[in-house]
Amino acid sequence: MELILKKSISSLGLEGDVVTVKPGYGRNYLLPQGKAVQATAANLAILEQNKADIEARRAKNQKQAEDIAKKISGLTVVIEQLAGIDERLFGSVTTADICSKLAELNVELDKKQILLNEPIKTLGETKILVKVGFNVTAEFTVNVVPLKTH
User: Fold this and answer.
1) What is the pTM assigned to this prediction?
2) Which fold has domain 69-146?
3) Structural domain boundaries of the chain?
C-alpha cells in the first residue's frame, strides 16, 4: 500500500515522503490517525504543489532539533532522590522526572523523546540518549545524588 506521509514518522520517513507499508498498518493506524493519505493521482498532485512548504517546514524542524541537540549535548543534570545506605533509591528516576528537570533548564522535551530502557534505580551518573528530531539524537548525563535531609 502506497501512502504519502502527512507527518514525520521515525520508523518510516519525513513529511511528504511516499512510502510503501503493509496494508494493515496503513488502514488501521496511519490513515485513521491522520498521519498519511493514500498516494492517489490527486493527492500526488497536491503534494507537488505543496512541496516548497513541506521542504521549508522540514528545514525549520531540522534546525530546531539541531539547536536543542546542541543545547543538551554534554549537559549534566543533577537529580536528588531519597536513597538508602546501599545507594539504592527509594523509588526511581523516570523520563518524566528527567523532563521536568530539563524544563527547569528551559529545554522543552516530551518524555517519549527520552530513550531510557528502564527507570534509574541507583545513585551515580547515567548517560541518557534523547531523540530530538528525525535522525537527530543527543546524549547527556543524569547524575542522581542522595537527597540531603536536615
Assistant:
1) 0.70
2) Ribosomal Protein L9; domain 2 (3.10.430)
3) 2-49, 69-146
Which strands form 124-133's sheet, in the order they lie side by side?
Answer: 76-81, 136-146, 124-133, 114-115
Assigned CATH class of 2-49: alpha beta
Please report the sign of the dihedral spanned by the C-alpha atoms of residue 57, residue 60, residue 63, residue 69: negative
Residues 92-149: tens digit of each pLDDT: 899 999 999 988 888 888 888 899 888 998 899 999 999 888 788 899 999 999 887 6
Q: Which one, of 105, 99, 88, 101, lies nearest residue 130 by Cα?
A: 99
Give the burial class of 30: count Cβ atoms within 10 A of its Cβ; 0-12 exposed, 13-18 middle, 19 or more buried. buried
